[in-house]
Design goal:
By secondary structure, this protein is α/β, with parallel strands linked by helices. The chain folds into 4 domains: about 120 residues, Glucose Oxidase, domain 1 (3-Layer(bba) Sandwich), CATH 3.50.30.10; about 110 residues, Enzyme I, Chain A, domain 2, CATH 1.10.274.10; about 160 residues, TIM Barrel (Alpha-Beta Barrel), CATH 3.20.20; about 160 residues, Alpha-Beta Barrel (TIM Barrel), CATH 3.20.20. The protein is built from 22 helices and 17 strands. The strands form 2 sheets. The chain has a 9-stranded mixed β-sheet with strand order 1-2-9-8-4-5-6-7-3. The chain is globular and about 80 Å long. About 45% of the residues are buried. The structure holds phosphoenolpyruvate and magnesium ion.
């Protein structure tokens, strides 16, 4: 770290390439610690008065937002805040909170519980207009609670100008609110390259740096302006003139490089000696398709469907999901689209599903485990995926598989759902390919057995590395131990590819390692068939594949497998890439 006057240069993990700078918007954590105590009769009046003050403060904030948006944006958008202000007058909320306070519940608990009950009630209504009000009530409820507790509520939707977002961390649902154009770049104190905020930044094409270190929280909170260099993993807080000058130079160089890579757009991902692989893209929603088409990806290797469930108050129904899947299929035609079934849990919280808090969420009730235990949720999604399969080449992918029974149970549910659809007179692809993600060491070690039951594998290295090396993928303190080139990880990857080849099924990789330029020669040499990654890396990966012979890659992979440490393997890969003489 280098310090000059109040300029600070911080180093973090390069999470999403590109460089941008501008005014800072600091996004605080919504930290609501709810007091647990009840209140005595003598405290009721003071608690009611505090609640009133919180309502007034909230109304004042909303009025200000309403006026600002009316002036700067338009009356329609401002009307949202007018609707929010009406919520403050709703007796179902205000009267109920007051009644509970009179019954001895502390104000924060009363606000929290009443808002939650109201949101749940609204979310279940048939009427779409009323259902949508649930989001308003939830948002206003958070504001009231924040004001009551003296913790301001931050909402990315409030941003009205292009800014650099700095934050202690970004949850997937906050990241889902980011809009390119509005958010020039972001940087966070926490997080690693494979945390979901980083993954989403790459698919949105927003430059990002994560893992700056919790110790820099205050500096981030106080910065006025910042430059984020997501290629180098560097953040400059309160830049000087020379930093802005350097930003402009790097922007020019970055644009130049993109122009060169764009010239590869139409060329096949084929080595000079004829090994052809496929390069696909990872997405989280139909809105991510723009950059995917720009780089001419050969399909979608991972559609993270859980993002359709985040940042909202009720799950998308069959029809809504079907429309989203169909939109992606039509957008990618004639290429295949790999739709992954719901992978919630871990760091992807979906508040409206009311999942219990767990001590070890990454080892808990997530992904396929949740789906098999909640067959109605799973069936709705399977029905939507099957229906979409009538419109293109769908591949269904099951996440977090650890044993054969999970695959069999999922396939049985798929068959039942297909029979239901046939009964409803709806079309679907009877040959739909079903594959699994290999992202647990248990699945990797059992891959020869699992291969007998499925049509393809896709290696999820983000979780596979996390579970093999016992390193939380979002914890920056241990991020140096999150090693794709750890010899143990490489042996697992090699074993999975070999098991797939022996069984005659295709092996893909959709974890972030597939878009890691240093890893490409190694994965190519190990015989990977398909690489799927954030669209931003695809052309650079293609450049490497087109520059390296398959024979050399195979020899390199054999050499790497004989090595003892991640450091040695990384050095070998670096030497290989430097030797290619890329532009
Ligand atoms: C993975 O684990 O590698 C993966 C692609 O899934 P996710 O990042 O969504 O957990
Ligand atoms: Mg995973």
């Amino acid at each position: 770290m280098e310090k000059k006057s109040d300029t600070l240069i911080l180093k973090g993990t390069a999470a999403s390439p590109g460089i941008a700078g501008g005014r800072v918007y600091y996004l605080k954590r919504d930290e609501f610690h709810l007091p647990q105590h009840s209140i005595g009769a003598g405290e009721v009046e003071a608690e009611l008065a505090a609640f009133q003050r919180a309502l007034e403060k909230t109304d004042g904030q909303l009025e200000e937002l309403q006026e600002r948006v009316e002036e700067e944006v338009d009356a329609d958008k401002a009307a949202i805040f007018a609707a929010h202000r009406l919520v403050l007058l709703d007796p179902a909320l205000v009267g109920e909170v007051e009644a509970r306070i009179r019954n001895g519940v502390n104000g924060a608990q009363a606000i929290f519980a009443v808002v939650r009950e109201l949101v749940e009630m609204l979310a279940q209504l048939e009427d779409e207009y009323l259902r949508e009000r649930a989001a308003d009530v939830e948002d206003v409820g958070k504001r009231i609670l924040g004001n009551f507790l003296g913790v301001p509520h931050t909402n990315l939707g409030d941003i009205r100008e292009a800014v650099v977002v700095l934050a202690p961390d970004l949850t997937p649902s906050k990241t889902a609110q980011l809009e390119p154009g509005q958010v020039l770049a972001f940087a966070t104190a926490a997080g690693g390259r494979t945390s979901h905020a980083a993954i989403m930044a790459r698919s949105l094409g927003i430059p990002a740096v994560v893992g700056l270190g919790e110790g820099h929280g205050v500096n981030l909170a106080q910065a006025q302006e910042a430059i984020v260099d997501g290629t180098r993993g560097e953040v400059v807080l309160n830049p000087r003139e020379e930093d802005w000058e350097r930003l402009r130079e790097r922007e020019r160089a970055y644009r130049e490089r993109r122009r060169h890579l764009n010239s590869l757009r139409e060329l096949p991902a084929q080595t000079p000696d004829g090994r052809r692989v496929r390069l696909l893209a990872n997405i989280g929603s139909p809105a991510d398709l723009g950059p995917v088409r720009e780089v001419n990806a050969e399909g979608i290797g991972l559609f993270r469907t859980e993002f359709l469930y985040l940042d909202r108050d009720s799950s998308p129904g069959e029809e809504e999901q079907f429309r989203a899947y169909k939109e992606v299929l039509e957008g990618m035609a004639p290429h295949p689209v790999t739709i992954r079934s719901l992978d919630i849990g871990g760091d992807k919280e979906v508040p409206h599903l009311g999942l219990p808090r767990e001590l070890n969420p990454f080892l808990g009730w997530r992904a396929i485990r949740y789906c098999l235990d909640q067959p109605e949720v799973f069936r709705t999604q399977l029905a939507a995926i099957l229906r979409a399969s009538a419109y293109g080449k769908v591949r269904l992918m099951l996440p977090m598989i650890t044993n054969l029974e999970e695959i069999r149970r999922a396939k049985a549910l798929l068959r039942e759902t297909a029979a239901d659809l046939a009964g409803r007179g709806l079309a679907y692809d009877g040959q739909l390919k079903v594959g699994i993600m290999i992202e647990t060491p248990g699945a990797a070690l059992l891959s020869d057995v699992l291969a007998q039951e499925v049509d393809f594998f896709s290696i999820g290295t983000n979780d596979l590395i996390q579970y093999s090396l016992a390193v939380d993928r979002g914890n920056e303190r241990v991020s140096h131990l999150f090693q794709a080139f750890h010899p143990g990880v490489l042996r697992l990857v090699q074993q999975v590819i070999a098991a797939g080849q022996a069984a005659g099924i295709e092996v893909a990789m959709c974890g972030e390692m597939a878009g890691d330029l240093w890893a490409v020669p190694l994965l190519l040499g190990l015989g990977l068939d398909e690489f799927s990654m954030g669209a931003g890396s695809l052309l650079a990966v293609k450049e490497i594949i087109r520059s390296l012979s398959y024979g050399d890659a195979q020899r390199l992979a054999a050499q790497a497998l004989g090595m003892s440490t991640a450091g040695e393997i990384g050095a070998l890969m670096k030497e290989c890439i430097s030797g290619l003489g890329l532009k």
